[in-house]
Amino acid sequence: MWRPGFDYVERMGATVNGYHRSLCILSVHHRGTPERPGLVLGLDRGGSCRGIAFRVTPENTDKTLDYLRDREQVTSVYRETRHRLRLTDGRTVEGVAFTVDRMHAQYARKLSHEALLDRVRHGVGVSGNNPDYVRATVAELENMGIRDHTLARLVASLEEASP
After folding, report:
1. Global pTM value
2. N vs C: which end of the chain shows fewer Cβ within 10 Å?
3. Is the CATH code 3.10.490.10 the one for domain 10-158?
4. Are 127 and 31 spatial neighbours (Cβ–Cβ below 8 Å)?
């Protein structure tokens, strides 16, 4: 959401029903290692999720999906799924999302606050450290007027632990 990495022609707030944002994926590449996994967000079953939809031109669709597959599917922890999205301007569109594969070994299920904090605090991977990922996500959500209580509490705990 805060680092799309591809060209787009429109960026708009959107809601998907049937899924919620969850720090439920053990990251062994981008924000952790196989020896010390971090955590990244996934769309998990249940509830609804407010976020961002990006519209790309028809001629860039395949290139964009190939880029996202390469970036997001390093370990095949996500399923590429299609959803009806409600945009903030009232339109309903079809979009592609990457939802967590609950059968994958990297699916972390529901972790306690302490377990989330420990994983995030120590996670570092090829895309950087895990605390920065969580902070950037919370900042982007707050810019959109969205408060994710789990992530906000996690950031507050990270700040308390910082010297």
Report:
1. 0.91
2. C
3. yes
4. yes
Q: How far apart are CA 68 and CA 64, in angstroms?
A: 6
Per-residue tokens: 44: 């998990």
Helix axes 130-143, 149-161, angle to 10 degrees: 130
Tell me how far apart the alpha carbons of residues 132 and 121 are, in angstroms, rounded to a whole number.
10
- Domain boundary assignment for the chain: 10-158
Distance separating alpha carbons of residues 5 and 31, to the nearest angstrom: 17
* pLDDT tens, position by position, 86-129: 999 999 999 999 999 999 999 998 899 999 999 999 999 999 99
Measured CA distances, 101 to 44, 77, 114, 144, 147 (Å):
8, 6, 24, 27, 25
